[in-house]
Amino acid sequence: MMKKFLFSLLLVFGAVAVAMAAKSDGVTFEKTRIDFGNVSSKGGLVEMDYVFTNNGPAPVSIVTVTNGGCHCTKPQFPKEPIAPGKSGTIVIKFDPRSYRGEVNRSVKVQFSDKSKRMKLTFTGVVIP
Question: How far apart, in whole angstroms, are the C-alpha atoms of residue 120 and residue 66?
């Protein structure tokens, strides 16, 4: 009797673990950090593409993408939900005009299937 109970309990915990793993797999990025190298402060906008895939069992939407706390960073992202197995791209445009030297900025992305925001960073050097 005890063996049946323990076996049943093990099955329940296993099912819960599988369900949690499927949900936590949600969205993955090809890369979350981009080094744009050296750019001129007068060279115009620098554009970085962050490609992600929905690995979850349901469509996922982007709720918000922060601008990193300044007007130099402009995010663009899909407004429509991304179906399971499909990919999308978050485009970050950085204006280097007011920067000199090393740049280390980040934006945070909130997806509909995650409680924790994901951080995307970019680095480089702005040459006057």
Answer: 10
